[in-house]
Amino acid sequence: MSSSSLAQNHWCNVAYWELRTRVGRLYPVHDASLSIFYDLPQGTGFCLGLLPLSPRSTSVQRTRGKIGHGILLSKEPDGVWAYNRSQHPIFVNSPTLEHHPYLSLTVRRVMPGYSLKVFDYEKSCQIQPPNDLVHMEGPYDPNSVRISFAKGWGPCYSRQFITSCPCWLEILLNNHR
């Protein structure tokens, strides 16, 4: 296949962030599943431990150490699932986590060994543009999922925005219809 054909065949891009700084490039996902981990011997997937080193705060260093086996993202017929393979919870925000067709500010905790459908294709077709973005930081994308390792954010946490979380992922879904 040509490189242009391959570029068109990925179902999402993954961006890794430390606080407000993106680390490394966008990682295109071509396979139906992707392991995202910090340090997994003989593992295949997106290894966060191999990303360029930059000066890090102690909270970032501590949280990076908690990622461990990380997560498995899986594209299924009904949506995208995240399986928490680490020893610590992950926290997820997605526009399809709520039952109503509006912007979701809900952050769900996924304990180690559990999974969550982080994006529902059917629900995504019913999402209406938000009227009030006061509680959002950054642009609104109805086809993105945000996952934080070990630290939650939102109205129930000391961190109000995901950009205050030490280590997090942004899953940018391509056209899924």
UniProtKB/TrEMBL annotation:
Ranges where the MH2 domain occurs: 11-177
Organism of provenance: Cyprinus carpio carpio
One GO cellular component term noted in the UniProt record for this chain: heteromeric SMAD protein complex
Keyword Transcription regulation: yes
SMART domains per UniProt: DWB
Name of the molecule in the record: SMAD family member 6a
Keyword Transcription regulation: yes
Annotated transmembrane regions: none
UniProtKB keywords: Transcription, Transcription regulation
